[in-house]
Amino acid sequence: MKYWLNFSFILFCCSILSQEKFSKEISFITENDLYVSTKKDRYYTNGVFLSYRYLSKTKKDNQEKRILEWQIGHEMYSPYKAIVQSINEHDRPFASYLFGSFGVHRVYKNDKIFNTTFQIGVIGPNAFGKELQDFIHDLYGFRKATGWEYQIKNALGLNLNTEYAQFLVKDSSNQFDITWVNAAKLGTIYTNISSGFYARVGLKPLVSIVNSMAFKTNLNNETTNFHREIESFFYIKPIIRYTFYDATLQGSFLNTSSLVTKELVPLVFHIEAGLNFTNNRYNFGYVFHFSSNTSKELRNVNGNIYGTIFINYLLH
């Protein structure tokens, strides 16, 4: 009976918390190929992102919410291994991209979402990729990377990124749904377009896409028609992307002095599979990623895999 009472109390507390409204969120995301294999350290090898999201005080009549986001991010790329002493062994360039961004998430009442994000940053040695990889390798007891002297050279990063999502269908139990997702990037670092589907399978009834952690729309205040929801779901997200330009591979057109550059593969298949869940004020998630080859002449021709771990904390 004692354990049953304790369990009931926990459920009651979670239920009370789920009725609250949180209008701000801090998010930390870390991505690394170590999260899927201790033997892989190549291609897109690490990403770190720190974000602060909050509800805007203004929105249009057809919008359920308008969420603003500030982010600092860092992305790192390496050849087929991080210890490549000869320039002839670089099957893709070392590269790192450090940026800050501001984004607007427009959440519409008809189950549509349109996001725009502007990034400004730098690619090259000024992004401190070598230093960060050395720190990570020291942390795990790996050998220090060699070959960063041939990385993509310094250049300004300016990118405008957009995302559009539209809910499509759900089953009668509301534990499975599909959303059509699209994205486009234009700038001095990435220029590409992509399209695919986001399918959720809930361990409990799913929350609408306009109020779900899946789409970063789970913030509310007294002006919204929703409150905090408890979520727990698996998802799969297959994407087809067509790339026109990638400075991490081809070098920046603003600085053509990079010693190692490669030719990109324009058409790429990318798939995510993950688990997201909430606990009190926290949101957690783990995601497995697979991408087909992004450039030509790679030594490992079976694509690339890496993992994502994220944690979000909600604030009033």
According to DSSP, the number of beta strands is 12
Strand-residue fraction? Answer: over 45%
How helical, in percent, are the residues? 10-25%
* CATH fold-type name: Lipocalin
- CATH class division: Mainly Beta
Structural class comes to mainly beta
Helix and strand run? HEEEEEHEEEEHEEE
Name the CATH superfamily classification: Outer membrane protein
What kind of sheet is the major sheet?
A: 12 strands, antiparallel, barrel
Overall body shape: globular
Major beta sheet, strand line-up: 1-2-3-4-5-6-7-8-9-10-11-12
The rounded Rg comes to 21 Å
By DSSP (H or I, 4+ residues per run), the number of helices equals: 3
**Uncertain runs:** 2-16
Mean pLDDT: 93
**In the residues, how many domains can be counted?**
1
| Termini gap | 35 Å
State the CATH architecture: Beta Barrel
Describe what this molecule looks like in 3D:
- The chain has 316 residues and is mostly beta strands.
- It has one domain: Beta Barrel (Lipocalin), CATH 2.40.128.140.
- 10% of the residues lie in helices and 49% in strands.
- The chain is built from three helices and twelve strands.
- The protein has helices at 2-18, 129-140, 247-250, and strands spanning 24-32, 43-55, 63-78, 95-108, 112-123, 155-170, 176-187, 190-202, 232-246, 267-279, 282-291, 304-315.
- A twelve-stranded antiparallel β-barrel has the order 1-2-3-4-5-6-7-8-9-10-11-12.
- Strand 2 and strand 3 form a beta hairpin.
- The longest helix is centred in the N-terminal third of the chain and has 17 residues, at 2-18.
